Structures are given as C-alpha cells and as structure tokens.
Amino acid sequence: MPVEYTDGRLDVADIRFLAVHSSQLAHQAAVTYAAAQAKEAAQVAEHIARVEARWFACASASAAAIAEYEGRGQGRRGRKPRPWRYHALHYQVEAVTQRQKRMQRGRPPKTEQPQDSIR
C-alpha cells in the first residue's frame, strides 16, 4: 500500500492486519479449524503412505512418478494435474536391496548364495 511519510516522500509498505474473534462463534470456528487441520494432516499421511508403498524397478519410472506427484505429469482423465497447495512435500529416489524368496521347500544348502533384488 502506498505510504506518505512526514518528510513528503512516498513509499510502498506492507500492511498487516490482526483479526481477533470476539463473538459467540469463536469457539465453533476454533473447533472447525482444528477439525480441518486434522483432516488435512490425515490426507498428507495417507498420501505419504501411498507413495512409500509403491515400488519401482528403475530410476526413470520412479522419476516419472515423482513428476506426477509434484503436478508436472499428465493429469487424470484429461484434467490438469493437481499438486499439493499448502504443503511442500519432498521426494527422493533410493535404491533398496531386498532378498528374494526361495521357491524350493526346505532348508537351503550351505553352498547356495542368497539372491538379492534391487528396487
């Protein structure tokens, strides 16, 4: 907002407002706000769990999924992608070594090396 000082110069300054709820609806607004925060926190936690549950065979597939999560990929059903609006979510690609399950029954021989897969 433009501000004029006592010496006559004009400058642009930020103005901050403080809103104080002083009505009978203040308690209801606080409860509604807390419920909205809890709902949004649950949505973020569900998204993180869904992201962590997905495994990819190569780094390029995981990079494409990250682009989709961040809103740079293709949207669904012809719509624009919708990134998170209020939260900064950061993703990274990690290689995880996991032991493969044996297909034969019984105890493996001592000479058999365990098979690992990288995801």
> What is the succession of H and E elements?
EEHHEE
Q: Spatial order of the strands in the main sheet?
A: 1-2
Cα-based radius of gyration, to the nearest Å: 27 Å
Number of strands: 4
Tally of separate helices: 2
On the 0-100 scale, what is the average pLDDT?
81
Task: Please outline the helices and strands.
Layout: E1 2-4, E2 10-12, H1 26-53, H2 59-69, E3 97-99, E4 116-118
Antiparallel strand pairs: 1-2, 3-4
What attributes characterize this protein structure?
two-stranded antiparallel sheet, single chain, two-stranded antiparallel ribbon, 33% helix, elongated, alpha+beta
3D architecture notes:
The model has no long low-confidence stretch (mean pLDDT 81). This protein is α+β, with helices and mostly antiparallel strands. 33% of the residues lie in helices and 10% in strands. The strands form two sheets. It has a two-stranded antiparallel ribbon with strand order 1-2. A two-stranded antiparallel ribbon has the order 3-4. The longest helix has 28 residues. It is built from two helices and four strands, in the order ββααββ.
Short structural description:
The protein has two helices and four strands, in the order ββααββ. It has helices at 26-53, 59-69, and strands at 2-4, 10-12, 97-99, 116-118.
